[in-house]
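Please check this:
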Amino acid sequence: MTSGTKGTIRIGIGGWTFPPWRGLFYPEGLPQKEELDYASRHLTSIEINGTYYRTQTAASFARWHDATPDDFVFSVKGPRYATNRPLLAEAASSIERFFASGVMALKDKLGPVNWQLPPTKRFSPDDLEAFLKLLPASVEGRPIRHAVEGRHESFRTAEFVALLRRYGAAAVVTDKLGLPLIPDVTGQFVYVRLQQCAEAVPTGYTPAALDRWVARAGQWATGALPADLPCIAPPAMHSLAGREVFIYLINGFKPNAPAAAMTLIERLSGQPA
């Protein structure tokens, strides 16, 4: 994690319970109940994926809050019941249930909520705007940040970028083949999901690839834009310095994701603040 003249850069993985990580990322014999504690002391953020599939309890969120360091942050995937539907405009009850389910027990460790749309969902400006209007700006007095992951190629349009800017939501940046790359900055933070970890590379990504993401993260964090990721729409008139950046190593060859995340953290720690 780096901070100072830059915004904070957080690096992590998706979830923390994955059997192939035992003996590879987690030490042999580490009790499963201690895995979150271990992961949170080697990474600076984790994207909670289980919330996408099922409702979690307030007790679970409170336990995860208490098991992690003071400066740790979780991002959370919004429930599929809100996003996997013909009309996003009809998601109000699912969104309300999600925020009433106990997620606010993460308190100050609640980072952005990633609303991941199915890859078959096409961009519909009116429907998406209706959905964005349903997303709360705050819950229980705490500001809520939102990211939208449009996974159909139709989202790669300046109209999508403009719509997210209007509502202050971030466009999720992904490097997964077959998904649209949308590197435009649309909110006050940047949300990246990297999904090309290779089995043949112990650190998941080659040193050159990791260096590229280190440079991009640093540029985003200082309010600049990576020159090697051409934007779809013209940049916003006012560039925001001190952006917070979240980068998650998600898939590809998942066993190598923690090594990739830790290597990114090490490389970032050697960058000037």
